[in-house]
Amino acid sequence: MSKSEYHRADERRFLDERGSSGPLAPNGLNPATIMEKAVRERIVDSYFYKEQCFAVNEADIVDRVVEHVDFIGGVYGTVQKPTPFLCLAFKLLQLAPSDAIIDEYLSFGGEKFKYLRALALFYIRLTRQDKDVYTLLEPFLEDRRKLRRKGRAGTSLMYMDVFVDDLLTKDRVCSTSLWKMRKRDILEDLELLEPRVSPLGDIEDLLDEMDEVDGNGEVRNGDGNHTDGDDDGSSEGEVRSRRWRKSSADRLSPQGGDSMDIDGPDDRRRSSGERSP
Amino acid sequence: MSPSSIVIGRIALGQAHIIDVPQSIVQTPTTQSASVVKMSAKDSSAYGQAAGDTDFRKKYDLDEYAAKAKDREAAEKEERKARWEAKMAGKKYYKPMDGSETLTTARNATQDFRKLVGTTTLVPAGAGVGKRGRSAGFYCEACDLTFKDNLQYLEHTNSMQHMRNIGQSGEVHKATAEEVHARIELLWERLQEQKRDQVISLQERLAVRKEEDEKEREEKRRKRKEAEEKRKLAKEEAVKVKTEYGEDVRIEGEHDEDDMMAAMGFAGFGTTSKK
Ligand SMILES: [Zn+2]
């Protein structure tokens, strides 16, 4: 299928093109088979999909998210009903939006509508190359907004940064198997990725600034005032995390913990650290 | 006038009679062969016809009708053939597109489909035979079909058959990043407006509530005062009555007889009265 001006209103042709003829996603996967067959069938059979995803284009997706998505999740309940979130993700797989459109969802739209950002993040994880997944997703580890999530166990509280972390570390999210990405440090070794730069700015500048602020002759060695946290190693992220305990940087501290446990904001923030640095 | 416009009419007295009908509105393939006559603007009235012309009835032309019928027959024959061919090829036949179709668009979120259709409704058995025609259930005007429930109806409106019947191609415009940006902006603005309205209505509600509360309090105060007044009055009355009886003031006329008798020397009845 060459690049057409139009989308098909329904998914028939999209699903018929599984196999070799359909266009592949940037990560080399066939978008029609990224979700599992049983899940796909549940989506296509759902009333929400038939009604709200028919003839929808990239702009209408925003309407639908704003109107219908107030929780994330895959299939839920005893009948394994697909969430509107999952249905719209499936629709995105069919629409194959450009990077420019994805950026609108993520940034301009994502600031305003958090579930639009969540949807774009999920879609990126499913279709983009691993180096792009890291660079596109990591900035949103700073997004602390709450999300609701519906799963087999009912509704639970979620956070955007935890969701991003799940997408980067787990192998199954929202009833969808995530394809296996290479680890971040491998991509760094291959020079496909720059070491992650915190949105707080350059680490050296930050440290200099800190020294000046701490100043008064006393030279701090990075972990003096903080006793919590594991005392292992002193990567740049480590040092920073100790200094900025209350800041966003602390997520880089390699502390364990299941990111699914939501005990409180502080525990939660620390819990998402077990990721390739 | 675009070349796709069709013209029905004929030349009379050197004047062109034009009915300009866009093809997307009227689908009459048989008239496509009719000659297209350009009309000069000065001959036209607001109705696309020269003013004062009463010649329009002459459009009914037997020859033209015969030609139309012939064309229609040919078209029907063509369609039958195409249907048969599609069937032989194991495919479903759809009316061929002729370029006049509009793009298919998503359901308007503000015009909620569910409200239109209602919830799943079962129709008593035997209410209608098959889907053809209008019967109890969800009726599709364009296709003249009736469906038992809204799910079937919805599936039908998503079908190629239906889209062709309402003149849609089943193709959807691909949005650009700019369009997506604009949509986000629009939706955000709308949301802010709703919030503002909500705040206003909330404030209004609060104001109304306050007024009502005030009235209610006023009413209570009034009642309380009234009750107090009553109590006070009753108390005063009671005191007054007591003091009046204390002074032994009799109610007028009550003991007049006794008084009279006393004045006349009688002490009462039944003692010395019988003489
Ligand atoms: Zn129909």
TrEMBL record, chain A:
Keywords: mRNA processing, mRNA splicing, Nucleus, Spliceosome. This is Pre-mRNA-splicing factor 38. The lineage of its organism: Eukaryota, Fungi, Dikarya, Ascomycota, Pezizomycotina. Pfam families: PRP38 (PF03371). It is found in: Nucleus. It comes from the Eukaryota. Residues 213-277 are annotated as: Disordered. Belongs to the PRP38 family.
Automatic annotation (TrEMBL), chain B:
Gene3D superfamilies: Classic Zinc Finger (3.30.160.60). The keyword Zinc-finger applies. Residues 209-240 are annotated as: Disordered. Residues 225-240 have a biased composition (Basic and acidic residues). The keyword Nucleotide-binding does not apply. One of its GO terms (molecular function) is nucleic acid binding. One of its GO terms (cellular component) is U4/U6 x U5 tri-snRNP complex. This is C2H2-type domain-containing protein.
